[in-house]
Structure formats: structure tokens, C-alpha cells
Amino acid sequence: MKEELLKKISSKEIKVGVVGLGYVGLPLAVEKAKAGFKTIGFDVQEEKVRLVNEGHNYIGDVVDSDLADLVRSRMLTATTDFSFIKDVDFIAICVPTPLDAHQQPDISYVRSSTEAISKYLTKGTMVVLESTTYPGTTEELIKPILEEGSGLKCGEDFYLGFSPERVDPGNLIYKTKNTPKVVGAIGKDATEVIAAMYRAVLEGEVYEVSSPAVAEMEKILENTYRNVNIGLVNELTMLCQKLGISMWEVVDAAKTKPYGFQAFYPGPGLGGHCIPLDPYYLSWKAREYGFHTSMIESSMMINDQMPEYCVERASKILNRQMKSMKGSKILVLGVAYKQDIDDYRESPALRVIEILKREEAEVDFYDPWIAEYKYKGEKNQGIKEINSEIIASYDLIMITAAHSNVDYDMIQKNAVAIFDTKNVMKAIENRENIEVL
Ligand SMILES: NC(=O)c1ccc[n+]([C@@H]2O[C@H](COP(=O)([O-])OP(=O)(O)OC[C@H]3O[C@@H](n4cnc5c(N)ncnc54)[C@H](O)[C@@H]3O)[C@@H](O)[C@H]2O)c1
């Protein structure tokens, strides 16, 4: 099986299936197809499948014309029909791995997509999970489902591995194509073949590890590293406020050290589908062994309290103007979880708005990337534009995302008061109405 697959990889005869056409899956499908592999995208959302088949792009990191060209040349198609799994030789699973209502891993998407794949899995196929998850998922969950559903044997009839996705939406330098990738599979042959398949597509290094569990853990380490360091910086920000020191200035000074320090900045909390969620996958797994990941728990506690802390600071700013939070008009600027993207999953700004509303402030939001968002089942519509008059009509402008396509000069000149939780106005000289987190 190994030699045959390696041959098919080098002759580009491998047909690729990408399951889940979201932020991770669609860019991956496009890269595979661009590299000359016929690719089928699978999704349960008919709307996404329709858009892809019409050549319409809906993911920021994908170049519109790339998608349109690949669809036109039939290198990329999409379907909701999993029976086409039987036609592919390489399957990448890129479905969501969120948390449930009790902050525990929800692997129902991984399970159901794997079950759907298992019904049509054929001999000589490579299957790779790319969704972020706890160490052990590939061997303990995916392998038995695939073996039972297909009647095939892992390692003999099909290869199985894990290769974490490192997509960083909005990153202008590192995209799917040039970001190094880690691969860990069940058995040496599987690792070699799956790594070869990625090497045939990507420019970045493909780094092999000894098992799927190492690759799964490696991904969680990456995200936990960010989570814990952001927690540290946020905690020190709260202390610096008491000491009358700017944490931003402290971090900028520390990062002049050319080794041993990586800069992380304060903010209103964690956002996105990865950093706030993934460490919970590890703490959940750790509890199976009676082990407590105390660093993760502490940083989660700190980061989770940041929206509340930011509202407290906002309240103090209003207080200095002899205003109460109740009834004050507040404009929250930026609901995306980070700058220059349209993704608001887990965005701390949504919690900030929720708390402001609970305190009976009159809250609007503006985001040049997001016209409306859904939170806890409710739709929220943003204001469509900002100008000097609109800005002047609010008691407080609270900046919660550092979007680059906003006229901050105009805001500074017209706002009564500004609470900048992202230090995005750092270059503005007149600071009389600006307070920074
Ligand atoms: N978005 C990121 O920046 C990022 C970065 C690195 C890793 N990841 C990880 O990658 C995984 C996917 O994340 P994403 O951001 O692409 O999610 P997403 O929600 O954008 O996309 C997931 C897609 O999977 C589809 N889907 C759900 N169930 C399915 C099923 N049973 N069969 C087929 N398709 C199904 C959904 O309809 C959706 O289109 C997650 O585990 C995430 O943690 C995401």
C-alpha cells in the first residue's frame, strides 16, 4: 500500500477529500487542488457547498480568483453527499471542535463526520484529522469508528494520522501553503506517506513525530502557550494599573531583549475558535488521570475576568465625568476577536457588550468587518457608519478590536471619552480623552 500511494502522490493521481469547508478546510482544499490534486470538499451545510460549486469564496484567507479558477477547471468541487468518499485516496477532517454548555469538549462533529466517512472508506485511503483536540482522539475515537464502519483494518487497509492545522486568519505572511506542518500517524509507513502527501502540496517544512498523540499534544501546547502568556500579561496589566505603570510600555521594553522573551499584549479577553477553547480539551483529558492543569485553570480565570474588568474600568471613566453606567451611551468599536477579520467566535467584545447591557448602559457597536452578530440566540445589528457627529453623540467609545481600517484620528478629535483596550491609538499625540487598558 505504501509504495503504491507514494507513486500516486508523485504522479498527482491522488484524489483528495476535505471534510468541513470552514476557515481551515476551504484554504486546505484550495491548496491541494492548486498543487494538482483533484479535490472534493464535503460539508453538511448546503449553502457552503453551493457557494463553492458556484466559485464564490467566503473565507478571507482564500484568494477569490484561485477558488473560481479551480472550480471552473473542475479541480475543486463540493458536495454534501458522503458516498463520494469512496472516490478519494486522501481525507482531511477539518470539522469544528467546540465546547459544550459545561465547558467540556464537544467532539460530536468529529464523531459524526468520521461515522459518515467510515461507511464509504475504501482500501488504500489515508485519513488525517486536522481539527484541534485532546491527545488520544485519533487512536481512541477515530480508529475504532473507521474500523467498525468500514470493516477495514488500520495500518493494513488504510492509514490514519493527525496533523494539526495552524491557520492564522488575517496573517499576511503565513498562510496554509507556507506554514510548517506537523504529522503524526499510526505506524511508520502511514507517517511517511501522509507526510509525503503534505510535502507535495506545502512549501513549509513537514515535521514528522512518532504518534498522533504527540501531534495532538503539540497543537494544544502551541495554543496553551499563548493562553497562559496572555493570562500572565493580563494579570500584570491589572497590577500595573494600580502601580500607575503602562503594561504596554513594559512589554515593548521587554521585547528589546533579543532572546528568551516573546511579546504578548493585554486585551479585553481571549477570542477565536482556538486559544480560549483548546486548553479545556487538555484539562478535560488530564482529569481522566486525576491530574489538574493548574496553570491552564489560572490563566483561564484571569482571561475570563477581563471583559468584566474592562467594564469596571469603563465605569470609572464615566464616573470621572459624573456619569453613571446606567443610561450612558457607549459605542463598542470592534466585535471581531482580532484585527482585520470578520470572525467573532468567542470574541470578548460580545461579553463586554453583554455586561454593559446588564448594567443598563445604552450600547451600540460598530465593526467595519461585521454588520451583525448572533450571541446566545439573539441577533445584534451594528451601526452602519461612524462620523464626527455620531462619535460625539456617545459618552464613551470603547475600542475592543484593533482594526486598521478605522479613522482613529477622527475618533480622538470628536469623542467625549475613549477607552482603548487594544492600544490601537498609541500613535495619536493628543491623549486628553484617551485611557488605555
Ligand atoms: N479557525 C482557525 O483559525 C483554526 C486554526 C487552527 C485550527 N483550527 C481547528 O480546525 C478545526 C476547524 O475549525 P474551523 O475554524 O475551520 O471551523 P469552521 O466552523 O469554520 O468550519 C467547520 C466546517 O465543518 C462543517 N461540518 C460540521 N460538521 C460536519 C460534518 N459532520 N461533516 C462535514 N462537515 C461538517 C461545518 O459546516 C463547517 O463548514 C477546529 O478543530 C479548530 O479548532 C481552527
TrEMBL record:
* Transmembrane stretches, start-end: none
A Pfam family the protein falls into: UDPG_MGDP_dh_N
Q: Which GO terms describe its molecular function?
A: NAD binding; oxidoreductase activity, acting on the CH-CH group of donors, NAD or NADP as acceptor; oxidoreductase activity, acting on the CH-OH group of donors, NAD or NADP as acceptor
Claim: Cell wall biogenesis/degradation is one of the keywords in the record: no
UDP-glucose/GDP-mannose dehydrogenase C-terminal domain span:
331-427
List the GO biological process terms.
polysaccharide biosynthetic process
Alphabetized UniProt keyword annotations: NAD, Oxidoreductase
Report the InterPro entries cross-referenced here: 6-PGluconate_DH-like_C_sf (IPR008927), NAD(P)-bd_dom_sf (IPR036291), UDP-Glc/GDP-Man (IPR017476), UDP-Glc/GDP-Man_DH_C (IPR014027), UDP-Glc/GDP-Man_DH_C_sf (IPR036220), UDP-Glc/GDP-Man_DH_dimer (IPR014026), UDP-Glc/GDP-Man_DH_N (IPR001732), UDP_ManNAc/GlcNAc_DH (IPR028359)
Please state which protein family the record places this protein in. Answer: Belongs to the UDP-glucose/GDP-mannose dehydrogenase family.
What name does UniProt use for this protein?
Answer: UDP-N-acetyl-D-glucosamine dehydrogenase
Which species is this UniProt entry from? Sellimonas catena
